[in-house]
Amino acid sequence: MRQADFVHLHLHSAYSLLQSTIRLPQLVQRARQYRLPALAITDHSKRLTVAHGLDSRRLLTQLESIDAFNDDDPGITLLKGIEVDILEDGSLDLPDDVLSRLDVVIGAVHSRFDLTRAKQTHRILRAMDNPNFTLLAHPSGRLIDRRAPYDVDMTRIIRHARERGCFLELNAHPQRLDLLDTHCQLAREEGVLISINSDAHSIVDFDNLRFGIGQARRGWLEKQDVLNTRPLSELRKLVARQNPGKGY
Q1: Residue 183 and residue 154: Cα distance in Å, rounded?
Q2: Cβ atoms within 10 A of the Cβ of 182, count?
Q3: Nearest CA to 194 among 206, 210, 183?
Q4: Is residue 216 over pLDDT 60?
Q5: Residue 194 · residue 216 · CB < 8 Å
Q6: Where are the domains of the chain?
Q7: Which of 10, 27, 188, 236 is most buried by a 10 A CB count?
């Protein structure tokens, strides 16, 4: 696996991160340097106020900008996405009629890391049952040397992903490297594809992907085990399968 093999499915822009340097022209320039065919713009949702997360109105405005960009036929496709908060009860932070307009819906836990194992697991399983749900971001929530993983039944999460036909992330940020290598191996055994993502908050963070590739290799993942090494046409079909309302 090489960085040029990947469609980046999790990265942030100045739409939600006020301190971010990533704007569409910079994204496209970086993507061309890596010869990437596509990128997904996945800013935070409104619940994450510290990141100036997007409400429905601001997200829809962003989608219009992405449509306009793609209509100009720049040779790189921008996919529409969101990193949506999974709320304590397992609901998602934006309404379904908005989420259904997206190519990629990344669910993430950013609060209540202290729930019991049963409640945290139920929370995530319920979120994954949403028909718009594509993949689970940084599944254990750990930050290396800063925050321990939350208590969750990862075996149940992985098997539910298989049943639902959705995906798990290996977050390549060097503070996360999450999934663990052992969970990567279990996902492979269960037939669950992993998405290796840079989680870029700045242009230089594109280079995080190499850390995720190393973690994937420790978990015995090969190219065929990774969702976002697929050609764009095949990738679109795989992520669209999660929501029958999407079509390409």
Answers
A1: 7
A2: 12
A3: 183
A4: yes
A5: yes
A6: 3-240
A7: 10
Backbone angles phi, psi at 11, to 5 degrees: -155, 160
Whether the pLDDT of residue 243 is over 80: the answer is: no
pLDDT band at 28 (very low <50, low <70, confident <90, very high): confident
Q: Report, as an integer, the average pLDDT of 121-131.
A: 97
Give the integer Cα–Cα distance in Å for 176 and 147. Answer: 10
Query: Which pLDDT value is given to residue 4?
Result: 63
Residue 17 has a pLDDT of 55
State residue 36's pLDDT score: 84
Residue type at position 135:
L
Asked if the model's pLDDT at residue 35 lies above 50, the reply is: yes
Distances (CA, A) of 198 to 132, 138, 158, 175: 22, 11, 21, 11
Across the range 92-96, mean pLDDT stands at 96
At the top level of CATH, the class of 3-240 is alpha beta
DSSP-assigned states of every residue in the chain: --GGG--B--B--TTT-TT----HHHHHHHHHHHT-SEEEEEEEBTT-GGGT-B-HHHHHHHHHHHHHHHHT--SSEEEEEEEEEB-TTS-BSS-HHHHTT-SEEEEE--S-TTS-HHHHHHHHHHHHTSTT--EESSTT--BTTTBPPP---HHHHHHHHHHHT-EEEEE--TTT-BS-HHHHHHHHHHT--EEEE--BSSGGGGGGHHHHHHHHHHTT--GGGBGGGS-HHHHHHHHHTT-TT---
Residue 86, beta-bridge partner list: 92
Asked whether the beta carbons of 9 and 106 are under 8 A apart, the reply is: yes
